[in-house]
Specification:
This protein is mostly beta strands. The protein is built from no helices and eleven strands.
Length: 122
């Protein structure tokens, strides 16, 4: 069974950091671009970062540019999202996703993880 599993969410104070992980089970991430998305209640899911299958291309939404870093370790079958200088506006459920037909960014996601909650509050 093909699954994406996010982890690393939690509660943090403003200015803090978290690292999210997206790990695949049942298949290899090597050939796929991976995107990170986030969603808050009542709003559409928003794409915030993407990394190509090779890791050679990364993209960021302007709201996270300079604060978040996406990376991948294909040996660990995992993609990471390092989030620094977090603020209350970053509070959301974070998802990773892929399109089984795409190795480049951007892509139209078709497979999603279950999400991990990030809460930034003092």
């Amino acid at each position: 069974q093909l699954q994406l599993v996010e982890s690393g969410g939690g509660s943090v104070q403003p200015g803090g950091s978290l690292r999210l992980s997206c790990t695949a089970s049942g298949f290899s991430l090597d050939y796929y671009a991976i995107g990170w998305f986030r969603q808050t209640p009542g709003k559409e899911r928003q794409g915030i970062s993407c990394i190509s299958s090779s890791g050679g291309t990364t993209t960021y939404h302007e709201s996270v540019e300079g604060r978040f870093t996406i990376s991948r370790d294909n040996a660990q079958n995992t993609v990471y999202l390092q989030m620094n200088h977090l603020g209350p506006q970053d509070t959301a459920v974070y998802y990773c996703a892929l399109d089984l037909g795409s190795s480049i960014c951007p892509f139209e996601p078709e497979r999603w993880g279950q999400g991990t909650q990030v809460t930034v509050s003092s």
